[in-house]
Each structure stands twice: as C-alpha cells, then as structure tokens.
Amino acid sequence: MVAKTDYERLVLFVRTASLDVLVQRLMSSGLLKKQVRCSHCTLQMQLGTNADKGDGFRWICMNKHCSHYKTTIGLRVGSFFAGFKASLSDLCTVIFCWLLEKPAKDIIADFGISKNLATKVTQKLRGVISIGFKSFFVN
C-alpha cells in the first residue's frame, strides 16, 4: 500500500511537471498508450506534437500508402482520459486526491477544479472499479 505522503507527492508532481514529462510518465505507467495502430492500414502511428489541439500531442499515420496518411487521432484514445476535455494535470489531480479520500469540496477549493469535473472523474472511477469487481466475481 502506498503511503498518503506518496500520493501527495504525486499530486505535486502532476501539478508542476511539464506536459512532456507528464505524458511520458502516464505512458510508462500504462495509463496512456505507448503505441497506437492506424485503423485503416494497421501500421503503428507516430506520436507528434500539435500545439493547437488538446494536449499538444497527436497520433499520426505516417504510411504514405494509406488512404488516411497524416490523419491524426488524440493522445488519449483508448484510455481512462478519453472523453474528458480537462487538462491531464487536472484529471490526474482529481484521481490522486480521490485515492487520498479528499472530499470533492477540498479538491475544488485547493486546485480550482470545477465541481462538474471532480464529479465526472470520480463517477468514472467508481464505474471502472465496479466493472472490475463484477468481472472478478463472475469469472
């Protein structure tokens, strides 16, 4: 079991780390995909930067023979973070604070995170855990 101080250090990390470092840490932890395949040519897509959209990173099909050459998809595809528009830093903050059993009102007050976001993230966390436990006992 991880001590609360470790979670608190993680909250500090996600609040202060550069986006590049945060993305790499999430990938190495398996919370973001390290590799994505093009749904059309099935070759591995390349991670590229795109400051104009979302997290600043996009998966890009670089197969010149693919009908979807240079088509991009979001960094969060297939992850817990997919579907959220909030920053990865805010999402991770809510997750770690939830693990610390911090009340939503404290997360909102301490980090300026909206009540709506805190509620949606914690509901999704409960849903993921519920599904995991249901499959654990059914199988």
Summarize the structure.
With 139 residues, this protein is mainly alpha-helical. The chain contains five helices and three strands.
How are the SSEs ordered, and which strands pair?
Elements: H1 4-16, H2 19-28, E1 46-49, E2 57-60, E3 72-74, H3 88-99, H4 104-111, H5 115-138
**What's the arrangement of strands in the largest beta sheet?**
1-2-3
Distance between the termini: 26 Å
What's the number of structural domains?
2
- Spell the H/E element sequence: HHEEEHHH
Biggest sheet layout: 3 strands, antiparallel
SS elements, strand count: 3
Low-confidence stretches: none
What percentage of the residues does DSSP assign to strands (E)? 5-15%
Descriptive overview:
This protein is mainly alpha-helical and 139 residues long. It has five helices and three strands; from the N terminus they run H-H-E-E-E-H-H-H. The chain has a three-stranded antiparallel beta sheet, with no helix packed on it. Helix 1 (4-16) packs antiparallel against helix 3 (88-99) and helix 3 (88-99) crosses helix 5 (115-138). The longest helix has 24 residues, at 115-138. The model has no long low-confidence stretch (mean pLDDT 90).
List keywords for this structure.
139 residues; mainly alpha; 3-stranded antiparallel beta sheet
